[in-house]
């Protein structure tokens, strides 16, 4: 019943979709955007509420095949409003009494003020929506959370509900620490989320989480350096081969680094930037880039894997067109180099432009002038494609309910958990909770006026949002952290330091992955 | 025993024991340290015991359970090429770091033991590397060394000493020596302070008498000062050596163990095995092995120290 109501309510978007369907002719994604000034992100504008009962049209799922920057702009605002309170009241009555222990990665000191304000607003509105659900929340940092949550689950002191980065859930699901869930119990359906996001919530065919937010990276480049190198500033590289060529040309013509290669050992930045190349060439740790991966076969040393490694090798060893410190750099160093005008291109997060605007504002004198010049010359483009596909790591977070036997007190208040997840993953909070940092996990949120506001406020958002279509989650196996954080970076290092040949490095990595999988207990 | 037996008679056998025990200094000493022992048994003894126990299990990431594998983790570890590479790196890091700190710390202490103008100020300045946070120091040195925009490369190139940046942290050959320099810089004040403390125990009369007898500075140092400092040196060397064997922060923050595992030392390897690789059983076996090695060094040095004290007594 509740689901039907929700579907009815969200169907208002169909009006706009019908209006825009004719003009949305499935045009190719526009890879670059202009560099006109963008306003600073502000608190979303309150909109008049419409209860689900007022809508009469049937819901039409988003057409993900049309997903590109133009489509993202077209659908934004097609769902004029959303009454979250009315929506969640259909899931769990507002008078429900209960308690909830919740862990999440909350706003940190360096985050923009808007993130902190919206977090505060979220908790205030949650409390007023369900005044009788006593909520104990714990905000953790990314660096702390995994170890704490592992310890807590092992010590039977896990929270009832937690929002965790996309790659973490499977470890807990495999260990039986998470409760199985159904999307329908929160008022959602599979159409409300990216298939890749749902894939990351599943273990052995069962669902253990709901996507809260998703993001993919994009290629950020300096148009001025392109001009200086004799490249067309409006034609960023379309393929990884072009990245190698452009990087060399920038280095030779300007003396500046062409591409911001990142390959630090034991660091998440490394696989997030290397795996898109691997997938583009038709490889992977396993077959995770396929629609229905089985994770049975190790592919890292196939021809595609070797070609991807060669892309890195050519830039670092042969052309020396990337930072010399690439093997110990994280992306933070690339951001600094780029901001200083010393780097042509790098793979960056959706929020990096906002961070650079912030830095430019704090600069003084000649630094400020240089920073503003750089901002005027920034270009965002889709990640390049390879011979097989265009790909980016599908990032983000999922929300999970822990199993009774690992939570504090030995019992999860399922009603409270359901109410909270429905509230947190509603179109409204799915978008507001990640205003500047990510994208809503709930696809319906892309239709809201809040998305329209974000597109006006956050420059290049449509490019990074468009990349979601090409998102590939890391292998959804519990061994993923070891493969991505240790084996893959070591493979890159072995090849780039010439400790091994490209083939030997890839074979070594493949053998390590196989050895790891053999350890599984049948 | 009947009901009419006097109370004093009934309890008589236990009183002398209690009395003796209460009078015993050792018993009272045990009583005083009992609270600490209880706390330590929870926060030290239990984790050590549990780590040793976990080393005999396999803990696959896929399962909530653990599986008894006996000595397999130890065998796998000792057979693995990477373990021996890491051991080599650890020794390459530990030995030069310890010796370097002595080579810098002892002369500094000898110099600062002289009646110099502004001696207290100099002592404070020399202590700065020791007192600042290791994390802050690691980040500052990382920037100094940085291959692309590091200060060191900047100056060396500006002075025309080098044409291309030196890859201090990005070359498999240079990475450990570069890290050792940071560690020596960070730890030499510790050697200096310990040596300075030891120098206060050298009787000035002896030095004066030797001077009157015509002994020069070098002779006085080797014949009088050095024997007095021997125990201080042994303790300092032991502490520093063990601390370097177990070190984590500087290499982790500056290189993350790279490039190509060239700066992967024991502590980093254990950490990544456990928390990046989720192989807690293997990491526990690794920890136990390192613990045993460190304990072996500690025992040897403590025995050496005790024996020398016995001889001197």
- Give the N-terminus to C-terminus distance of chain A in angstroms: 42 Å
How large is the radius of gyration of chain B? Answer: 27 Å
| Oligomeric category | heterodimer
Number of E-state strands of chain B:
2
The fraction of residues assigned to DSSP E strands of chain B is under 5%
How would a crystallographer describe the biggest sheet of chain A?
Answer: 6 strands, mixed
Uncertain residue segments of chain A: 1-38, 48-58
Brief account:
The complex is a heterodimer of chains A (522) and B (313). In chain A, 42% of the residues lie in helices and 12% in strands.
List keywords for this structure.
heterodimer, A: 522 residues, alpha/beta, D-Maltodextrin-Binding Protein, domain 2, 2 domains, 21 helices, 14 strands, globular, disordered N terminus, B: mainly alpha, MetI-like fold, two-stranded antiparallel ribbon, 14 helices
Explained architecture:
The complex is a heterodimer of chains A (522) and B (313). Chain A has 522 residues and is an alpha/beta fold. Chain A contains 21 helices and 14 strands. In chain A, helix 11 packs across helix 12 and helix 14 (352-362) packs antiparallel against helix 15. The radius of gyration of chain A is 23 Å and the shape is globular. The model of chain A is unreliable at 1-38 and 48-58 (pLDDT under 50). With 313 residues, chain B is mostly helical. Chain B has a single domain (81-312), classed as MetI-like (MetI-like fold). A two-stranded antiparallel sheet of chain B has the order 1-2. The termini of chain B are far apart. Classes of the chains: A alpha/beta (522), B mainly alpha (313). The interface between A and B is large, with 40 and 35 residues.
List strands and helices in order, with pairings.
The complex is a heterodimer of chains A (522) and B (313).
Chain A: H1 2-10, H2 13-21, H3 69-75, H4 84-89, E1 98-105, H5 113-129, E2 133-140, H6 142-154, E3 161-165, H7 169-174, H8 195-199, E4 202-203, E5 206-207, E6 210-215, E7 218-222, H9 223-228, H10 240-254, E8 257-259, H11 269-280, H12 303-318, H13 331-339, E9 343-348, H14 352-362, H15 365-376, E10 378-381, E11 392-393, E12 395-401, H16 414-424, H17 427-432, E13 439-440, H18 449-457, H19 461-466, E14 471-472, H20 480-496, H21 502-518
Parallel strand pairs in A: 1-2, 1-3, 8-9, 11-14
Antiparallel strand pairs in A: 3-12, 4-5, 6-12, 6-13, 7-9, 7-10
Helix pairs in contact in A: 10-12, 11-12, 14-15, 20-21
Chain B: H1 7-11, H2 14-23, H3 25-54, E1 57-58, E2 67-68, H4 72-79, H5 81-112, H6 119-131, H7 134-145, H8 151-158, H9 175-199, H10 204-212, H11 217-245, H12 249-254, H13 266-276, H14 280-312
Helix pairs in contact in B: 3-14, 5-9, 5-11, 6-9, 9-11, 10-11, 11-14, 13-14
């Amino acid at each position: 019943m509740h689901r039907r109501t929700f579907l009815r309510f969200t169907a208002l978007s169909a009006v706009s979709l019908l209006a825009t369907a004719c003009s949305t002719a499935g045009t190719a994604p526009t890879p670059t955007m202009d560099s006109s000034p963008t306003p600073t992100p502000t608190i979303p504008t309150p909109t008049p509420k419409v209860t689900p009962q007022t809508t009469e049209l049937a819901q039409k799922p988003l057409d993900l095949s049309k997903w590109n920057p133009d489509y993202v702009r077209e659908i934004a605002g097609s769902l004029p409003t959303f009454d979250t309170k009315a929506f969640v009241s259909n899931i769990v009555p507002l008078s429900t009494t209960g308690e909830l222990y919740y862990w999440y990665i909350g706003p940190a000191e360096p985050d923009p003020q808007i993130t902190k304000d919206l977090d505060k607003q979220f908790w205030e509105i949650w409390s007023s929506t369900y005044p009788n659900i006593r909520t104990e929340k714990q905000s953790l940092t990314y660096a702390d959370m995994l170890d704490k949550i592992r310890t807590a689950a092992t010590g039977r002191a896990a929270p009832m509900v937690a929002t965790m980065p996309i790659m973490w859930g499977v470890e807990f699901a495999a260990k039986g620490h998470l409760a199985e869930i159904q999307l329908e119990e929160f008022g959602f359906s599979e159409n409300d989320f990216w298939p890749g996001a749902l894939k990351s919530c599943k273990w052995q065919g069962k669902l253990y989480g709901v996507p809260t937010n998703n993001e993919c990276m994009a290629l950020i480049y300096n148009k001025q350096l392109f001009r200086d190198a004799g490249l067309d500033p409006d034609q960023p590289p379309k393929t990884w081969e072009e990245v190698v060529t452009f990087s060399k040309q920038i280095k030779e013509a300007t003396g500046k680094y062409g591409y911001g290669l990142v390959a630090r050992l034991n660091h998440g930045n490394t696989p997030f930037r290397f795996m898109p190349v691997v997938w583009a060439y038709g490889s992977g740790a396993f077959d995770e880039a396929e629609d229905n991966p089985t994770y049975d076969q190790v592919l890292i040393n196939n021809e595609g894997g070797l070609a991807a490694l060669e892309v890195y090798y050519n830039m670092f060893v042969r052309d020396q067109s990337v930072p010399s410190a690439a093997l110990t750099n994280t992306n933070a160093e690339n951001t600094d180099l780029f901001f200083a005008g010393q780097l042509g291109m790098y793979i960056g997060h959706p929020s990096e432009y906002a961070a650079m605007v912030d830095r430019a504002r704090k600069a003084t004198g000649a630094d400020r002038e240089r920073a503003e010049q750089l901002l005027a010359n920034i270009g965002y483009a889709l990640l390049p494609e390879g011979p097989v596909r265009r790909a980016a790591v599908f990032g983000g977070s999922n929300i999970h309910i822990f199993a009774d036997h690992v939570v504090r007190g030995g019992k999860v208040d399922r009603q409270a958990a359901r109410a909270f997840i429905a509230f947190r993953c509603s179109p409204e909070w799915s978008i507001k909770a990640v205003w500047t940092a990510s994208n809503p996990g709930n696809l319906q949120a892309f239709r809201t006026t809040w998305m329209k506001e974000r597109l006006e406020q956050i420059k290049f958002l449509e490019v990074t949002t468009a990349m979601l279509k090409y998102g590939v989650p890391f292998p959804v196996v519990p061994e993923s952290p070891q493969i991505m954080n240790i084996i893959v970076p070591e493979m890159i290092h072995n090849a780039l330091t010439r400790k091994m040949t490209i083939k030997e490095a890839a074979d070594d990595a493949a053998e390590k992955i196989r050895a790891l999988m053999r350890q599984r207990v049948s | 025993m009947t009901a009419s037996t006097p109370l004093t008679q009934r309890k008589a056998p236990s009183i002398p024991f209690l009395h003796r025990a209460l009078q015993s200094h050792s018993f009272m000493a045990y009583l005083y340290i009992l609270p600490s022992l209880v706390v330590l048994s929870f926060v030290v003894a239990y984790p050590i015991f549990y780590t040793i126990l976990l080393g005999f299990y396999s803990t696959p990431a896929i399962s909530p359970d653990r599986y008894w594998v006996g000595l397999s983790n130890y065998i796998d570890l000792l057979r693995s090429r990477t373990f021996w590479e890491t051991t080599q790196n650890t020794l390459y890091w530990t030995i030069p770091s310890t010796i370097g700190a002595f080579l810098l710390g002892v002369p500094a202490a000898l110099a600062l033991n002289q009646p110099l103008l502004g001696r207290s100020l100099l002592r404070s300045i020399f202590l700065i590397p020791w007192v600042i946070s290791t994390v802050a120091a690691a980040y500052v040195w990382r920037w100094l060394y940085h291959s692309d925009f590091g200060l060191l490369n900047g100056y060396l190139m500006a002075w025309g000493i080098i044409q291309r940046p030196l890859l201090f942290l990005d070359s498999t050959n240079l990475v450990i020596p570069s890290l050792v320099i940071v560690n020596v810089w960070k730890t030499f004040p510790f050697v200096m302070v310990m040596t300075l403390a030891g120098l206060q125990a050298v009787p000035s009369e002896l030095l004066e008498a030797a001077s009157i007898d015509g002994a020069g500075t070098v002779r006085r140092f080797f014949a009088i000062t050095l024997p007095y400092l021997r125990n201080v040196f042994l303790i300092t060397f032991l502490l520093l050596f063990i601390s370097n064997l177990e070190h984590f922060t500087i290499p982790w923050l500056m290189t993350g163990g790279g490039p190509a595992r060239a700066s992967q030392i024991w502590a980093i390897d254990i950490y990544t095995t456990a928390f990046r690789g989720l192989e807690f059983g293997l990491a526990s076996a690794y920890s136990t092995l390192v613990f045993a090695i460190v304990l072996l060094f500690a025992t040897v040095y403590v025995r050496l120290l005790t024996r020398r004290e016995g001889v001197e007594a």
